[in-house]
Every structure is written in structure tokens, then in C-alpha cells.
Design brief:
By secondary structure, the protein is α+β, with helices and mostly antiparallel strands. Among the domains are: about 35 residues; about 150 residues; about 170 residues, Jelly Rolls (Sandwich), CATH 2.60.120; about 120 residues, Thrombin, subunit H, CATH 2.40.10. The strands form three sheets. It has a seven-stranded mixed beta barrel. It has a four-stranded antiparallel beta sheet with strand order 1-9-3-7. Helix 6 runs parallel beside helix 8. It is elongated and about 135 Å long.
Length: about 750
């Protein structure tokens, strides 16, 4: 009996198995029939629920087997059905995509990820209705896209991201529901890890690879833009910053809110400068209002970038913007601004130039003569009675203060002569101008500007522009903690030395870098010393390790005879010497002999060693200041040790008088040279015209230098030729040592042009 039941059970199971297999075959037959209709693009088959449920698993089965080609053909048809005119067919096709996307993501099938991305991009571009399953599919696509970006399937996912970005920015018109979903998904694609991978690839990959990564990065929306701007701000690599400055403007209007936000925040100067550069390249005139806030930025390079923005934007408002900028920018930039303004032939330009001319006593000391000369040259085009009177006033004032041979007397007189020639003598009479006003300039313009009585210290340092209030306040701060007995002892020991007020005025730029404790510490440890004319301040080869702050007086630089045929301007009050020995135990490369009585203050290394632990931040600030301002020994040593190793491209040098060849013949007013050494506070230039008369003719003259930096930025800097000559190691070249008035933050730069004034 039990045996019969067992046989019966086996028979029943076999029958069920047969029925199941028969059903599977019938199902396969139905599916194959449906697939055949689907391949014929009879998409009504999607109205069959069984087909919708079976299509995605069937495609995966074919792909994993040996029928990948058939699977890809079915996906091509699905790409068409999902864009069918029938909403119902699109909805059911979308269900297949949703099921397929889930399996593709879970099983990390790279090739099918690319196909799903392609189909989805086409569908999103086409879809106009918020159909059933829209948001669910988009969320699954989000995971696939992030995974594809992480695995560098950039070519495959590029078009889908571009389409999403167009919808997010409303460049591709969709319903509000579609726009909202896509915008949220698009923002979430910008994961920092993914963006970092792409940004690093963009900054390092080959050009072919770079194109697709660039296109994805500029289509990553607000969050992607924010990441790139932050990377720009944080990057320490100049090449990276330059590449990002070039990339971000291509994002377009999407980047504007992020850029404006950065301009409103306090940033390092180079970040602000780079953001302004990006805004300029966007070419949107409406954004200038955000940029002009930085016309009065404390860093001149930022101011210069704002001026560049004005030039780039151009337009009807350019003149008004330049006029506004003239009242705010640093004096070093005003010469270029004047060149831009004179292009506008309007009466108010003359009024502006004359107004600026009348403000000449307020010009910075190092720009004073250059700016006045520039204005004189430009005023030739405005031969009005006001111009003539302004020039006559300048001539009278300068002649009275500095004599007949003053450089500005000559410049202003030449301007009046040109006006007379241009107007056939109808506008001006020269009866009040003496002929000797056009005598040649004295050779050393710097000495010509020193008052006749060097003991009149208020006049000698009037150009420094430091108020008495500042000096008194700083003096009070520095001396508040000093014991009275110590002050009296110091005063009695150095009765002949200048007052501490004068020292603080001359060195205010240094003390402003220090906090109260640091300033007190430095000042209390300075030793005043007066040297008589003829005495040596220091001699070449000395191991002197003191840091020397010159308060007043002049000293002659004497180099060893075997160094070559060299000349230098005198060292004088306000100059710092000795950092090579103080920080590096280097011997002195030259001798300094007092030409007049010299008052200095010494910071002795052994004393400083005992206090730097108590004031830990002082060493860094002192070292930074010295690296920027004690540059002449560095330039001289560089020329002695390695005189003929140019480190940059050719420089064009414009001179007021013709350079002479080695035999004394006149050569040209424009010669070429090379940059051989650069540092924060100056640089060396070598020219092939090895005639010392060329250097003597321009020694002490101001120069303007066109500098460029590794990040692509440009800057005009001003300085003075402090020395040079024909070094023994390079007898065929003439070295010029140029010291900058305002040291640069970076010590690596290129120089294309130098104008000797």
C-alpha cells in the first residue's frame, strides 16, 4: 500500500514537472513571439504586463550568456520605445529601464552602464511629461552616474550629464516637476571624491582625455563650480591655478553666485585677483559692480586686475569707470590709467589730468617724478591756458627748490615748447621761461632731490608720508614699558644720535608688521651708533653678524678690485644691511665707507638669540622683512658667483639716451638683455653693451618693469638702478642691479620690458 502511494507521488511530481516545463516552453514561446514583435518596433507589446516584467531579465540573461549582440539589439529598440509618442508605452519602457538599472548597478556591469546612460540621456532630452516612475528612475540613474564617474567612464556618461545640466539651468525647457527632480539629482552628482578625481585628471591628463573631463566639469552645476573655486583658492600649484582660471569661466552664468560670494568674503590677495580675472572673462558688464569694490584693495595686484577688468569689459561705461578708478588706485597704477584715459577725446579728460597734476605733492615719493613726467607728456595734447599755467607753476616751484638742472624743469619746459610748436606760437609766450631751464639733467637724480641742508631732517624725510600722530603713537607704545633709568642712560651715552622719533618714522614700515611685544623687544635691543665721515661701517670679508638699520646719512659701496669695474649709488637712511651674516654667517661681499656722518642702530645676533625664544613669532617676521628689503648683497654675490647664467627670456630695455657700444659709438635707445637673478626685492639684468658709461648715465634712475608670473598675471613694478658694472667673470656684459620700491610676494618672475626714466 505504501509502495503504491510512493509511486503515485512520484507520478504526480513528474506530471507537475512536465506541466511546468511545458508552461516554461509556452512562456518562452510567448516571450519569443513578443520579442519578435518588439524587434519589429511594434511597441504595443508593452501593453502586455508579462512582457514588461520579462524584458529586463531576458536582456541580462542574453548579455551574460553568449548572445551579447542580441541583448544590445534589444537595448537599441528600448531606446526607441522609451521615446515613443504614447505616454503609456514610455511609462512601461521606463519600468524596464528601472529594473535594468538596478541590476546593472548591483552587478557593476560597465558596458551596460554605458548603454543605460546613453538611453537615459536621449529619453531625458525627449521627455516632456512627468510620467509614472520618472523620479524613481532618476534616483537609480544618480547612483549609476556617480559610479561611472568614479570608475572614469567619462566618455560614456558625458552626454547624460550635459543633458541634466541643461535641464537644471532651464536651457532645456521642461515642466516644473521634471526640472525640480533633475536639479536635485544633478546637484547630488557633485560628490567631492568624484570631483577630485576628475579635477586631478583635468590638470594632468593628455589633451585627448582632457577634453571630455573638461566638458563634464563645466556641466556639474552649482556644487561642481563651488568645488572648483575652492580648489582654486586652496591650490599651492601655480600651473593648477592657471588651468582653473581658464576653466571656470567656461561654466558660464551658473558660476556667478559662487564667484560673487567669494568676492564678498575676505580672501588672500591672489584668490581675489583670480576671481576678478574669472569674472572679467565672463564678459558680463552687470558684474562690474561686484568687482569695483576692490579698486582700493590693499594689494596693488588686485587693483591692477580690476583695471584689467575695466579694459576687458570696455563699452560705453569704460571712461567713467576709469575716472572713478583714478581716485582710488595706488599711484603705481595711475600712469597706465592716464594712458587709457587720453584715448577719450572729451573735455573732462583735460580737467581730470590737470586736477591730478595739481595733486602732485601727494604722489608717493618713489612715483612722484615719474607721474609728473607722464602727465607733462600727455598735457601736450591739451594746449589750454590752464595747462600752460600749471606747467609754468611747476617750473617755477621746482627751479626754486632744486635749481635750474632739475629733471622736471626740463620735462615741463619741453612740454611747453611742444605746445608752442603745435600751435604755431599762438597759445603761449615764453618770456617768463629762462633758457637755462632746459639744461641737461644732473647725473644723479636721487641726490638732486635731497634738500640742500641735510640737517633739516623733516625735509629730508617729508616724502615718507608718515604723520606725526603715527610717530607719537608708535613711540609711546614702544617706550611705555621701558624703565626711565634705562632711557636716561641710553640718551646720555648717545647724545649725538638722532631721536628715537626719527628712527620710528624711518622704520615705521617694519614696526607696523610687529605686535606691541615684538616691537618693544626689537627696539629695546637696538644699539645706536654714530660713524664719522671716512669711517668704515663694514669691510669686505668681515664676519660681522650684526643687522644694521641705517637711520640717516650716506655710505659709499666699495667692491674688491678683482671683482670688476663696478659703481653703485650710496646706501642711505632707510636701508637695511647685514641679513646674510645675521641669518647665515655669510661674509660681507663689499665694503661700506661713510661719506657723511651716519647714524645706525645695530641688532646684535648674540642678543637676539637670547630673546627670540621669549617672542617666538619675531624671528619669522624679521627674516621675511630682510628677504624683501636687504637685496643688494644678494644681487652682487649672484653676479660675482654666476654672472652669465640667464634664467629667463630676453628683456627689452628702453633708455632716455642712446646706449654706447664698447668703442664708445652711439648704439640705440632700445637694447636687449637677460634676467640673470631675481628675488622679492629686486633683480639683475645683463646687457651686451659692456661700456661702463652706459651704467653711469642711468645710475640712480627710476625704472618701470613689466613683470609676469607663473600663474599668467602681469604687473608693472617700479624701482631704481642701484648699481652694477662689468664683472670680471663676464667682461662682455654690463650688469644692472635693480631694487624694487615695493618687494613682491613671490621671488620667481619674468621680465619682458624695462623703461629707464
Amino acid at each position: 500500500m505504501d509502495v503504491d502511494k510512493e509511486k503515485q507521488a512520484r507520478a504526480m511530481a513528474k506530471a507537475k514537472q512536465s506541466l511546468l516545463q511545458a508552461e516554461i516552453k509556452r512562456e518562452e514561446a510567448r516571450l519569443n513571439q513578443a520579442i519578435a514583435l518588439f524587434l519589429q518596433e511594434k511597441f504595443d507589446i508593452f501593453l502586455n504586463d508579462g512582457f514588461v516584467q520579462s524584458l529586463a531579465p531576458h536582456i541580462l540573461k542574453l548579455y551574460r550568456g553568449d548572445q551579447r549582440k542580441t541583448a544590445l539589439v534589444l537595448l537599441d529598440k528600448l531606446e526607441k520605445s522609451i521615446c515613443d509618442e504614447s505616454i503609456e508605452i514610455r511609462e512601461r519602457s521606463l519600468m524596464v529601464i528601472m529594473m535594468l538599472s538596478e541590476q546593472v548597478y548591483l552587478n557593476n556591469i560597465r558596458e551596460l552602464s554605458a548603454v543605460v546612460a546613453r538611453i537615459s540621456a536621449k529619453w531625458l532630452y525627449f521627455e516632456s511629461e512627468f510620467i509614472a516612475g520618472f523620479e524613481a528612475v532618476c534616483l537609480k540613474l544618480q547612483r549609476i552616474i556617480v559610479e561611472m564617474l568614479s570608475t572614469q567612464q567619462w566618455y560614456e556618461v558625458e552626454q547624460l550629464i550635459v543633458t541634466m545640466n541643461k535641464i537644471s539651468n532651464k536651457n532645456l525647457r521642461k515642466t516644473n516637476l521634471i526640472h525640480g527632480v533633475i536639479a536635485r539629482v544633478h546637484d547630488k552628482l557633485a560628490e567631492p571624491e568624484v570631483l577630485d578625481i576628475m579635477a586631478n585628471a583635468y590638470l594632468s591628463e593628455s589633451n585627448q582625455r582632457k577634453d571630455v573631463v573638461e566638458n563634464i566639469l563645466i556641466n556639474m552645476g552649482h556644487q561642481g563650480t563651488r568645488f572648483l573655486v575652492q580648489k582654486l583658492a586652496q591650490s599651492n600649484d601655480k600651473d593648477e591655478r592657471l588651468a582653473l582660471v581658464d576653466l571656470i569661466p567656461r561654466i558660464g552664468k551658473v558660476s556667478v553666485p559662487i564667484l560673487i560670494s567669494c568676492l564678498d568674503e575676505e580672501q588672500p590677495w591672489f584668490v581675489t585677483r583670480n576671481i576678478i580675472m574669472i569674472v572679467s572673462r565672463l564678459g558680463d558688464d552687470a558684474l562690474y559692480g561686484e568687482v569695483k569694490k576692490h579698486l582700493a584693495h590693499q594689494d596693488i595686484r588686485v587693483q591692477q586686475q580690476v583695471l584689467n577688468c575695466i579694459e576687458v569689459l570696455g563699452g560705453d561705461q569704460m571712461k567713467d569707470r576709469l575716472l572713478e578708478a583714478l581716485q582710488l588706485i595706488d599711484d603705481e597704477l595711475k600712469a597706465h590709467l592716464v594712458d587709457l584715459l587720453v584715448q577719450f577725446e572729451e573735455p573732462e579728460i583735460e580737467e581730470t589730468l590737470l586736477s591730478l597734476f595739481e595733486q602732485r605733492e601727494n604722489f608717493s615719493s618713489h612715483m612722484h617724478d615719474f607721474l609728473i613726467s607722464k602727465l607733462c607728456n600727455k598735457l601736450v595734447a591739451y594746449p589750454s591756458s590752464q595747462t600752460i599755467q600749471a606747467l609754468l607753476t611747476l617750473i617755477e616751484d621746482r627751479q626754486e627748490r632744486y635749481g635750474l638742472d632739475d629733471s622736471l624743469v626740463r620735462t615741463a619746459t619741453d612740454t611747453l615748447h611742444k605746445i608752442e610748436q603745435n600751435t604755431s606760437g599762438d597759445t603761449i609766450s615764453f618770456q617768463n621761461i629762462q633758457e637755462n631751464q632746459v639744461n641737461s639733467l644732473i647725473e644723479d637724480e636721487v641726490l638732486a632731490q635731497i634738500p640742500a641742508d641735510p640737517a633739516d631732517l623733516s625735509a629730508a624725510y617729508s616724502d615718507e608720508g608718515f604723520s606725526n600722530i603715527f610717530v607719537e603713537t608708535l613711540t609711546d607704545t614702544l617706550t611705555s614699558n621701558m624703565e626711565k633709568t634705562a632711557v636716561e642712560e641710553q640718551t646720555s651715552s648717545f647724545e649725538s644720535h638722532l631721536s628715537q622719533d626719527h628712527h620710528l618714522m624711518v622704520w615705521s614700515g617694519f614696526y607696523e608688521r610687529l605686535n606691541t611685544e615684538e616691537a618693544n623687544t626689537i627696539f629695546k635691543n637696538l644699539t645706536p651708533l654714530t660713524l664719522k665721515a671716512g669711517e668704515y661701517v663694514v669691510q669686505q670679508g668681515d664676519k660681522l653678524s650684526d643687522l644694521i638699520f641705517i637711520d640717516h646719512g650716506f655710505g659709499e659701496i666699495i667692491t674688491p678690485e678683482n671683482a670688476g669695474d663696478l659703481v653703485f649709488t650710496p646706501v642711505q637712511g632707510g636701508e637695511l644691511l647685514g641679513s646674510g651674516g645675521f641669518f647665515g654667517n655669510q661674509p660681507w661681499p663689499f665694503t661700506i665707507q661713510a661719506q657723511t656722518d651716519i647714524q645706525v642702530r645695530l641688532l646684535k645676533k648674540d642678543q637676539f638669540s637670547g630673546i627670540q625664544e621669549k617672542v617666538p613669532g619675531l624671528l619669522g617676521k624679521l627674516s621675511e622683512f630682510c628677504s624683501q628689503y636687504d637685496v643688494l648683497p644678494y644681487l652682487i654675490s649672484g653676479a660675482m658667483d654666476n654672472p652669465d647664467a640667464p634664467e629667463a627670456s630676453e628683456i627689452t630695455i628702453h633708455c632716455p639716451s642712446a646706449f654706447k657700444g664698447q668703442s664708445g659709438e652711439d648704439f640705440d635707445n632700445e637694447v636687449s638683455g637677460n634676467l640673470t637673478q631675481s628675488t622679492h626685492g629686486g633683480f639683475n639684468v645683463i646687457v651686451s653693451k659692456a661700456n661702463l658709461d652706459n651704467l653711469k648715465a642711468c645710475l640712480g634712475h627710476q625704472v618701470s618693469a613689466e613683470l609676469s608670473f607663473a600663474d599668467g598675471s602681469l604687473q608693472t613694478s617700479f624701482g631704481i638702478i642701484v648699481g652694477g658694472g662689468i664683472y670680471k667673470g663676464f667682461p662682455d656684459g654690463l650688469h644692472l642691479h635693480i631694487k624694487l620700491y615695493h618687494p613682491l610676494q613671490e621671488d620667481g618672475f619674468n621680465c619682458s620690458t624695462i623703461h629707464i626714466m
